From TrEMBL:
Its cofactor is heme. SMART domains: Catalase (SM01060). It comes from the Eukaryota. Keywords: Heme, Hydrogen peroxide, Iron, Metal-binding, Oxidoreductase, Peroxidase. Its EC number is 1.11.1.6. The gene is CAT1_1. This is Catalase. One of its GO terms (biological process) is response to hydrogen peroxide. GO terms for cellular component: mitochondrion; peroxisome.
Length: 505
């Protein structure tokens, strides 16, 4: 069933106090037979071997052996909650998406926040971007906005994704995280430094999940009922205000309370202090998008708010904790390709790659019928000719015909849905077009550095230099080269820090 907007009991137990539940009734085997005794196994004599005929014991062990599904290859550690989205301003001139069609309209949704690189058991306060994944259960099917808490990303070339993630994960030999791998990779792709400056500022260690903004990062295409496209960046601004941890606080918390952000989100919802975010659009016409001074389809670049101010759209509120973490959070499958009429991808090459990669990951992680899991299924049940597959746990469409077109009823498409949409012309020579770093790639990191106040600048210098200082000298030199292209003063401050430890660089 779709999540409901249930008001929480403000006196409910917190994450540290388990509620005392009522009696849950007779224990049974997986197949419903009553269990007489769960603790002593069936043995030959008091100290003898266990009998295979103790089905309940064997069933229980075998199920335990299969409890884990593969964790997400990235964004493995996360927390989620249910809530609703409400439209507060009219945006029907921009999109025909039904859930955005009317002021006051509410749509149930589910959100998952995460760190990116370390494993599912890792600390919530690591220096990383944070995932900001939203699922809107609309009447036209699910719309997923799979964003981050940073308005940009590490790279603008799809194939690099694997090679962006690997050097941040564990060294293949030592199984340790490696600053050498990290800074080697990113100095070879200086386009990543816009993202890295955010990551090494205090925004790289947000104070829990409630005090950070979320971004589509990519430019998306919106299409209105006349078929007219607009190109739009989505900004979800936290109503709780931005709050970050300083580096030493984050490190301390990683030891003291590794689940800090998960706990904070859970407890705040449980006590009725519901976090919310306001959605804004930055809107460009097609002509403006193709002629902007930066490539709006390059996810390493932002669009200036002075050029295109934020326009309010709505607000989402998280007001219900999951009842079961595995069923609702671990099995949640977000994908940028889960779109609804009125919202479409832009030509951003990274977004295009993501349209494939997520559903592919879900098929591996959760199996071919993951769309039928309650957390992933749309409000209006899916209706198509896809059938069977491992773990088909519904009635599999019963007796309905399973091919299209057919003469016996069955689901049929409706061409009028996209009737008004303007054709979109693209042409070009097939080729592998390189995107090497150019002067423009340094402009936005430079502006970002200069925008920070004195304390924030100092924190950035310290956080970054500390991490770089344990890499090999040739890598340190390359970091300084890239920083020099961003801002000479920035470079010299980092250099001064590094020289204290290593006068030879
Ligand atoms: C998770 C691929 C870029 C945000 C994932 C997953 C994959 C993936 C395979 C795991 C999905 C799963 O098992 O459920 C990629 C590729 C990218 C890319 C190939 C670039 C080509 C980005 C960008 C953002 C982003 C630019 C943000 C703007 C996320 C988030 C999750 C995620 C938030 C976790 C979703 C959740 O909470 O379940 N990504 N990613 N990714 N990615 Fe990406």
């Amino acid at each position: 069933p779709p999540p409901k907007d249930v008001k929480q009991d403000p006196n409910a137990a917190s994450s540290t106090e388990l509620p005392r539940d009522a009696d849950w009734g007779q224990m049974t085997t997986s197949f419903g037979a009553p269990v007489a005794d769960d603790i002593p196994p069936l043995t030959v004599g008091e100290r003898g071997p266990i009998l295979l005929q103790d089905f309940h014991l064997i069933d229980k062990l075998a199920h335990f052996d299969r409890e884990r599904v593969p964790e997400r290859v990235v964004h493995a550690k996360g927390a989620g909650a249910h809530g609703y989205f409400e439209v507060t301003k009219d945006v029907s001139h921009l999109t025909s998406a039904k859930f955005l069609s009317q002021v006051g309209k509410r749509t149930p949704m589910f959100a998952r926040f995460s760190t990116v690189i370390p494993e599912s058991g890792s600390a919530d306060t690591v220096r990383n971007p944070r995932g900001f994944a939203l699922k809107f259960y609309t009447e036209d099917g699910n719309f997923d906005m799979v964003g981050n808490n940073t308005p940009v990303f590490f790279d603008n070339v799809l194939a690099s994704f694997v090679d962006i993630i690997h050097p941040q994960k564990r060294d293949p030999r030592t199984h340790l995280f490696s600053p050498d791998m990290f800074w080697d990779k990113f100095t070879l792709r200086p386009v990543s430094f816009h993202q890295l400056l955010i990551q090494f500022s205090n925004r790289g260690t947000p104070d829990g999940f409630r005090h950070m903004h979320g971004f589509s990062s990519h430019t998306y295409k919106l299409i209105n009922s006349e078929g007219v496209p607009h190109y739009v960046k989505w900004h979800f601004r936290t109503d709780q205000g931005i709050k970050n941890l300083k580096a030493d606080e984050a490190v301390e918390l990683a030891g003291k309370d590794p689940d800090y952000a998960t706990r904070d989100l859970f407890d705040s919802i449980e006590r009725g202090d519901y976090p919310s975010w306001t959605l804004y659009f930055q809107v460009l016409t097609e002509e403006e998008a193709y002629n902007y001074k930066y490539d709006v389809f390059d996810v390493t670049k932002v669009i200036s708010k002075k050029d295109y101010p934020l326009q309010e759209v709505g607000r989402f509120v998280l007001n219900r904790n999951p009842e079961n973490y595995f069923a609702e959070v671990e099995q949640a499958a977000f994908a940028p390709s889960h779109m609804v009429p009125g919202i479409a991808p832009s030509p951003d090459p990274l977004l295009q790659g993501r349209l494939f990669s997520y559903t592919d990951a879900h098929l591996h992680r959760l199996g071919p019928n993951y769309s039928l899991l309650p957390i992933n299924s749309p409000i209006k049940p899916a209706n198509n000719t896809m059938r069977d597959g491992a773990m088909m746990f519904t009635d599999n469409y019963g007796r309905k015909t399973n091919y299209y077109p057919n003469s016996f009823g069955g689901p049929h498409p409706d061409r009028t849905i996209y009737e008004g949409e303007k054709d979109w012309f693209v042409s070009g020579k097939v080729g592998r077009y390189r995107k090497d770093a150019c002067e423009k790639d340094y402009e936005q990191p430079r502006a970002l550095y200069r925008l920070l106040d004195k304390t924030e600048q100092q924190d950035l210098v310290d956080n970054l230099a500390k991490d770089v200082s344990i890499t090999q000298p040739f890598i340190q030199k390359r970091v300084l080269e890239v920083l020099g292209r961003i801002d000479e003063e920035f470079r010299s401050r980092v250099e001064a820090f590094l020289r204290k430890k290593n006068p030879d660089i």
